[in-house]
Write a structure and sequence with these properties.
Immunoglobulin-like, about 15% helix, 8 helices
Amino acid sequence: MDSRLTFSVPHKVLFFLLTVLQLSGAAGEWCSMSRVCCVSERHLRVEENNPVNFVISNITISEPPVRIQNPAATPDVAVVGKTLQLTKSIDFETVPSPVMIVTLECGSARETLDLTIEIVNVNDNLATFPDKVLNLNIGELFPVNKTWRTEKANDPDGGQIYYSLDPNTNGADYFRLKTRNTPEIILNKTIDYEMTKKLQLILYATDIPNDPSRTDNLTINISVQDEDNKPPVFEPCSPFINPNASICLDAAYLGNIIQHKIETGPLQLSPQQVHAVDGDKGINAEIRYTIIGGDPEKAFKIDTNTGVITMVKAVTSSNTIVLIVMAHQENDHYKFSTTTVTLKVLGRSKYPPKFTKEIYNGIIQEHSEPKSIVLGQSTSTRPLEIQAEDNDFPDKINPSIEYKIIPSDRFTINRDGFIFNKIELPIGVRMYELTVTATDVKTGESANTKVKVRVVSSNGLPVVNPRLMYEAKEMAAVGVPLSILLIICIIAIGILLRKIHQEKMEWEKINDGSATNIKNLSKDLFSPSSDKLQFANEAFGEEATSVSGQKSSGPSWAGLPAIEPAALVAVLTPEHQTDPKSQRSNSAPTTEEDHKNFFGETDTDAEVKSILTKERKSDEGYKSVWFKEDIEPEANEEHVIERRNDEENIHDDSDRSESFLQLKSDDGGSVSL
């Protein structure tokens, strides 16, 4: 059979024949009828891209020659010696058919041996996209979870292709692939033109997963198309944070009018005149305005095209007016928005506010901390005060005036007209020129003035703290420890007062009981059986026994018995004090009669002997006190028994005194009891 006819047979038929041949072939060698020539197997496989002279199979020849029956039909193979070789490198993608049938003629008898050679495809080509860059459009209203595009790559080897999207692009959040092997690009979430106008995707394709060297990519640049899906928005609108959509809240407007007065020209509104724009900025449709409510007196009108509001007559009511304004698209009246214009009705004012000076001058020290107050130019301690007067008030002070300073990036002004720095002032600027505006919030009237603030060095002012106002936390830091100290002082004072009161009560108890007990104590002291109060003049005994007859250097008080304080109090009471000159005679009774009268004794106490005598007694057991001049008139010594009150130790209480018994000698020696 002619081999050229085999190439016209479809590939499926050839593969079927090869399978049958393989099943029918015997194991081992494949030989001709008489085994003149043999090969290892009937069905031979050769990979593409092998080099020239590649040995397809060895031939066992028992009788030469061996040759190809029709070499023109199979020019890619040839018999060389005892081998079957390729005559060129074969590319699977370029051959007409991947299967060749070769017939060998062997020996002189020309026995035939049919062979099948299959060219095996090798993955030697990359999967590639037809284009490297695509520029596409998508509408912002494209439905979510629907296939947007399908971009396939081509692989000449016909193998499996794997796709993926680069996660580092801004379009990766909006799109996804249907499967890893299906390059259908699906919209994953809604696209908002006002938030996103450009997106980019990078699509990768490979025939071997995780092998960057065999990967191709396609860059897709996407332009988002705006669609008419949003109503008008009043500006300046306030953006509302939403990660999935751009939402802007409509602005509201404020203004003032005067009762019974028509304002000429457009009303002055804050933050600006009424103005709305199409929410779809890519379309930017024309906007029209209408007042739909809040004007019962029909005193206002609005320009349909511009939104400017003017007055057509005066307002008689003093109540605040709230106008409701609607803005709608010219091409679609169903797309509209509404807002409010609040107008405060003010009373008439005869006098507008005015400043007392055209220019105010102040100073501030360099390197001053934020919130430091600006001082007056002529003083280093008094702050600069900006004051606006209003002659509508008797004291010219209008509590409705508010102050505003321009520029406000470095300085601020409070309601009382004091200026403070907001930041530490930069080095190099020595003068700041500011404008202060005073506005009557009830009437809307205002006045302006200039303020010049000069920055001075630290050497140009006395060392003072320009920060004259303290914050609550600073006052609390000082007040808390002071409060604790005050509480401690109050507790200490209370304890001291309690102790003083207790001592005073004890002294009062002692004084109340001392007067009633004096008499009883005195009787006990001078009774015959009592020896608590004793006096002995041992100096006299010493002189009598002296050999030299010389005077002693001083009286000796050795061995003087202890006298209890209670006995002295009983004897030396304040009622019996006399003049010091008469103390000698009145210090103690000298006779028994006097003794009785002194102590108030009755006749039953007559047997008690006096301890005072003018003569020396030698009776044993008898104790007495005498005066030496009575015994020895020549002696110059004088022993005086006297009572006195120590004025230096008298306390504030009038009923308290201390009594002493003092013995003196004429040479100055004495003892106090």
